[in-house]
Amino acid sequence: MATRSEATMTIHSRDNRELPPTQGKIIRVIWDKAERTRNALRTLGTWLTFTFAAVFIPILHWVLVPTLFVASFVLALDKLNETMRSEGGTGECPKCHQTFKVQASKWATRVTNNCDHCHEDLELTSNYSDYPASE
Ligand SMILES: [Zn+2]
């Protein structure tokens, strides 16, 4: 089953390294093996449907069908190995000290984001102490 939990992130400015870091929070989703298998099969099904649909496109089907067929398995394998994802959250900008929205990301341990107010280039890294040991 997918578990959602709050994780704290340390926020650094990528442009002004001398600014003291601030803190933010993201919601991360962690999938168990059964959920990852379901996600992978769903991805495989979706992309095999696109592959089948591409059969009916004249001329282009010579390229699309083999490409999409291989991509279906590559993307499903990628989904099978995806254990964690960030659903986004909020953080305090180290430069303007306003609260900004952290975008959802495939990566839950290191995220780059821009401040909504001053557009500062920010880097968020997880505080590893609150991450469980990987399976
Ligand atoms: Zn800012």
Number of strands: 6
Low-confidence stretches: none
Bound molecules: zinc ion
Overall structural class, as computed from helix and strand content, comes to alpha+beta
Largest sheet at a glance? 6 strands, antiparallel
> What gap, in angstroms, lies between the N and C termini?
14 Å
Radius of gyration (Å): 19 Å
Order of helices and strands: EEHHEEEE
Helix % is 25-40%
Residue-averaged pLDDT, rounded?
91
Number of domains: 2
Beta fraction: 25-35%
Q: Shape, please?
A: elongated
Spatially, the strands of the biggest sheet line up as 4-3-2-1-6-5
The count of helical stretches stands at: 2
What does this structure look like?
This protein has 135 residues and is of the alpha+beta class. The chain has two domains: 3-31 and 86-130, no CATH class; 33-81. The protein contains two helices and six strands. The protein has helices spanning 33-54, 61-80, and strands at residues 3-13, 22-30, 84-92, 99-102, 110-114, 121-126. A six-stranded antiparallel β-sheet has the order 4-3-2-1-6-5, with no helix packed on it. A hairpin with a 6-residue loop joins β3 (84-92) and β4 (99-102). The mean pLDDT is 91. Bound molecules: zinc ion. Zinc ion (ZN) binds at residues 93, 95-96, 98, 115, 117-118, 120.
Brief descriptors of the model:
about 140 residues; 2 helices; alpha+beta; 2 domains; six-stranded antiparallel β-sheet
Fold blueprint:
Blueprint: E1 3-13, E2 22-30, H1 33-54, H2 61-80, E3 84-92, E4 99-102, E5 110-114, E6 121-126
Antiparallel strand pairs: 1-2, 1-6, 2-3, 3-4, 5-6
The structure holds zinc ion (ZN).
Zinc ion binds next to loops.
